[in-house]
Amino acid sequence: MDERIGFVGIVLDDMSAAEKVNRVISEYQDMVTGRIGVPDHENGRAVIGLIVRGDSTRLGTFTGRLGNIAGVTVKSAVTRKNSSE
Known about the structure:
The protein contains two helices and four strands; from the N terminus they run βαββαβ. By secondary structure, the chain is of the alpha+beta class.
């Protein structure tokens, strides 16, 4: 298994997407080791930051599912494989 650790940044431009985002995060909760959410009530937006740990395939599926939700933007950064592998 090629376990990676990284960060996933989620921007909700449409707060009506929050339920779907939280549902996907709950499905992958075993990979989430930290979470912070910052709402912008005045403008109806929010930002969620996740610290994640898991294999690259599953992390890709997770971020892909989040990114396919309307009104949501996702960016991630994860550690690379060791060059000796």
